[in-house]
Structures are given as structure tokens and as C-alpha cells.
Amino acid sequence: MTDAPAPLRWRWSIIFAHANFPSGDALGSRCRGGLVSGCAIGIGFGASTFSWRDIMKPLSAAEYARLNPEKVQRLVLADPAILTTGGSPAWLNWIFQIPQINKLGPILVGGIASSGDDLLRQSYVDQSKVTQAVLDGYHQPLKIAGWEQAFWEFSKAPRVAALATNVIQVSQPTLLISGDSDTVVPVADTKKLATMIPDASLVLIAEAAHLPQEEHPAEFAQAIIDWLARQ
Hints:
By secondary structure, this protein is of the alpha/beta class. It has a single domain, classed as Rossmann fold (3-Layer(aba) Sandwich), CATH 3.40.50. Helices cover 45% and strands 10% of the residues. It has a four-stranded parallel β-sheet, with helices on both faces. Strand 1, helix 3 and strand 2 form a beta-alpha-beta unit. Helix 2 packs across helix 3 and helix 5 packs across helix 8.
């Protein structure tokens, strides 16, 4: 993404943006929707095709589209973690609010500085493409002061979202893209999701895992171009 236009590069800077949201919903589904709206307005999106792929998750974009059909005409979701959102079980959320745990949290999540590399490698089929430049790019947010606190807030944010049970209400033409070897968001989940969204198309990028847009950018872009041409 280093050669991408600025509107495509900005998304990485929001990963560790930290703010205090009401009702313990820091970077939870409701407030992520607000960030989606704010960022869309900031970039200048009108009613248009909306593509979202970052740590905020396609869940945020899809939920935004469901709730704001007049603002989104088409939707592109890559490796969408919607049926399984990850994170801790909801019944554990109260533990994160214990003052001692909350204080230790930023220290505990600091391990992602090294363990995150394992997830990145899992996200590629061709390990030769996980170059030092790629690793350095993913390490950049970890150089921002206070990233541990921000990631802790993200980690303990509520993962409950209405979309998983209301996905049939996504009315826009939707393109789902997945690597055919994705194990982070299982391909079976994306295939199932394609049967649940009324106007969904599914493209599997061959020889790609969780990051087809990085591992095979030309094929990824062509899939979107072809889909738009059919609209």
C-alpha cells in the first residue's frame, strides 16, 4: 500500500487512534460505526462504493451500510470477519473493568509487537512476500506513543453486533473477496456469508490467504473492476 493514493493509505493511521467513548464502548461496534461515518465524510465519499479493510473490520462497514442504505450504493468486503468477530467472550468483559486488570492491560497486549508477526505470516501463502519492508510497515503503528493503551481499549471493546443476525438487511450489491487459503477468517465463513446477503457476489483469489489485496494486488483490483462493470 506504500504506493497507493493518500485516501487509501490513511486507513492505517486510525488503527491505534485512541479516544474515550461513552458507556464502555471504546472502539466497540457502535463507535466504530461513528468512525466509519466520520472518515467517509472526511475523505469526501458521497453515496458510492464503500470498501473497508483494516483492523476496524469489514463488520463496521457492513453495519454502516445496513443502517445507512441511502449513503452506500455498493459494498466491497475483503475477508469479512462478520459471522465470527473474534475477541473475548462477552461474559468476560466485566473482568477487564477490574482496576488492577485494566492497569496491567496495556503491558499485557504489548506482546503483539512480536506475536503479530506470526499472524502476518499466517496471512500470506507465499512467505517470500513477507519481506522486511512489509514487516516494517506493520510495525510502524507500534512506534506511536501510547499504542499499547489504545490496543488494550480495542481488545476489551464489546464484540457484540447486530449484523451477524441481521445481515439479510444489507440491501446493497456486495462483493465478498477472500483468499482461497484464508485460515484467519475461514473461507467457509465467507462462502456462508455470500448466501446470507441478498445481492452478494463472491470471489476467491487463488494462492492467497488473509491479505489477498497485498499478496495479489492486481488480481484483487481486477476482481473489483470486473464486479463494478457488471453493476
